[in-house]
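Meet today's protein:

…
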Amino acid sequence: MGKPKFSRKKYETPSHPWQEDRIKAESELIKKYGLKNNREVWKAKTTLKNYRGQARELLGKIGGSDPQTKKQSEQLLVHLTKLTILPLNSTLDDVLALEIESILSRRLQTLTYLKGLASTPTQARQLITHGHIAIGGRKITIPSYMVTKNEEGQIGYLADSPLTDVAHPARPHADFKSVPIKKEIEPEKQKEEKPAVEIPPSEKKDETIAEKKEQAEPIKEETAKPEKQTAEKHGKHKEKPAKEIKEKETKAEHKAENKEGGK
């Protein structure tokens, strides 16, 4: 039995801790439904496993004349239809076809997000744990609470919660819109852009050769310009020393004339 203070685990852990495919699948579910950790995924898996096990046992006994098996099968199907996990007039074979998302979608956290009471699944979890969400005026602080079909329409904010005010900043705005996806070019526009008459390959080759020549001519002109500039620069540098020599000769002549005049 164990101590009542420390109850046993109500879920089964995976057989191996490091399995790549299982870890990826669990991380995707955690992001999608805003779960706290992998433990909540394991709890949903164990509940699904229990439902499947009951259905499997009942299918093995349903061939006999025991009325208890019929009663148990009816009770299981009624329970799943109340939770809206299965539709009406479903059979035990439908129980075996269930998946984990059919159980995670019936949690209070996901339904508060789907009803527009929160902008994200993580915010829905926060509002539930802080006591802002109620079902039929009754406060519920358990995000994993399984909502029945009758309770689904009674989910709302608590009467004493400040979120009842429409202008509260934590409430999702009515004007909120998702980011639009960029649309690709429509096929009609693409057809209009295409030429009506196809050019033969011989003419296309001639056009490409002419285009290449036109592109090569400005390149040659651009390459010739810096050569001219460098030549002009070199010419200026050569002229400078000749001018300096002439100036020196004129200065020497003026000095000689001045000396002769002084004598």
